Amino acid sequence: MSFPPTPLPNARVYLRRLQPHDAPTFAAYRADPAVARYQSWDTYTLAQATEFVATYGPADIPGPPGTWRQLAIALCVTDGLIGDCALHLIADEPRIAEIGITLSPAYQGQGYAREALRSLLGYCFTELQLHRVYAITDALNLPAARLLESAGMRREGHFRQHVWFKGGWGDEFLYAVLREEWQQVQGSGKLV
């Protein structure tokens, strides 16, 4: 299982390991209130980012089942960090993974997140030979829902008042795609 995955044809971004020089950028976009709104944190400091990158940057990708790993989303032209993807092989069934994405506001709405997710899904199904990949998003985060759909995932569930989140009960959407579905779309020549 090689990492990082080969960038997609005509890619503007690629996935790589987090590196020490990424910490200031990582902290900056994660500290943005618009980014933190639907995440588990409210603020993010440079010290937290530096510790996170030092701990998880050199870690194995994917991690052992049951652990999360963050993958840097970098611009192909500059290698500059613009966001990160999360990958979590499920402990009880490591042929299934949960994924997530966080992108700097400066790069949102330009198709970068879609490219990164397509690359991550390709890695999951081609290199890791996973059976199923899913993502969960806050039901109020409609841009994330549109992103997951545009990357080829389908909404499988709407969990009402499913999570206690930042002081209140929140709804969540479940999105997923199977390897056979991913392969069919890739084989058809259609871009998802």
UniProtKB/TrEMBL annotation:
SUPFAM superfamilies named in the record: Acyl-CoA N-acyltransferases (Nat) (SSF55729)
Top-rank taxon: Bacteria
Transmembrane segments: none
GO CC annotations on file: cytoplasm
InterPro entries linked: Acyl_CoA_acyltransferase (IPR016181), GNAT_dom (IPR000182), Ribosomal_N-acetyltransferase (IPR051908)
CDD domains given in the database record: NAT_SF
GO molecular function term, any single one: protein N-terminal-serine acetyltransferase activity
Pfam families, A to Z: Acetyltransf_3
Residues in coiled coil: none
Protein name (Swiss-Prot/TrEMBL): GNAT family N-acetyltransferase
Taxonomy of the source species: Bacteria, Pseudomonadati, Bacteroidota, Cytophagia, Cytophagales
